[in-house]
Every structure is written in structure tokens, then in C-alpha cells.
Design a protein that fits this description.
Layout: E1 5-10, E2 23-31, E3 38-42, E4 47-51, E5 54-61, H1 75-82
Antiparallel strand pairs: 1-2, 1-5, 2-3, 3-4
Protein name: Retroviral polymerase SH3-like domain-containing protein
Amino acid sequence: MIKSSQSYIHLPIKERSKLNLRALKCIFLGYSPNKKGYKCFHPPTKKYFITMDVKFFEHLSYYPKSDLQGEYYDDKEDLFYDSIHVEPCPNFLHPEETTN
């Protein structure tokens, strides 16, 4: 399992009412060293769960990806530098073209 991937833990009947959700969207943290089960965290309630009844979605991250994460390449910046035309300064002459 991939850590920090999206997972859903099943809530037992005694921990929910008839109209409550049956599962909570959580972040998979790893395996519990003390008990059998998967360790998951539910950010809205700030609760940790250790349970065997988990559905994993390894290809999905709990948090949506933003442009601030990882590398970002801006094509507009290249267009700006490509449009600038630089001409040599007339004060600088090549050594072959020196005048006396």
C-alpha cells in the first residue's frame, strides 16, 4: 500500500446512527505495530483509526494536487525572452576590427 493514499474505513453500526455515513475518507498512514490492522487518519475530526476493514485507492491522493507541488514550467516566460532582440553595443569592437 502507498502511504498517504486515499482510503475509506468502514464505521461499525455501534459507532454511527442510521443516517450517518457508513465510511470515512481517510489518509492511509501505514501498519499498526501494536495491533492487527491498518492505521488511518481522518483530518476533519483529527482522529486515528486502526482497523482491518479498509478500502484503498492507491492511485488517488487524499489532498488534490496543486501547482505549488513539484515542478512548474511556465511557457509564457519563454515567449517573453524569445521576443527580446539584443543588438551588440557599438562601443565594443572585435579585435580584428580595431582602428588606429
